[in-house]
Amino acid sequence: MLGVQEAFLRSLDAAELVRPERSGGGHRRYSRRQLALAVRIRDQLDEGHNLAAAARIIGLQDELTQAHDTIADLHRRLGDDTR
Asked: Residue 1 falls within a domain, yes or no?
């Protein structure tokens, strides 16, 4: 479905980047959000980054997106559409 090996997903679990729920039988159960994160990490690895760098890049991207959303919300609250 994602085009990655099961071992890749296990490595993300071992690195505590993606922590899936477990079924009664011990099988990993990933949420859609976790799978989307796994794809983002894979993309970073494909660009030549190591796992730690990929995680940091994605974290910074998410922080930047959140900051942009906060700024846009503040502009809306102030009635300021002149960005």
From this structure: no
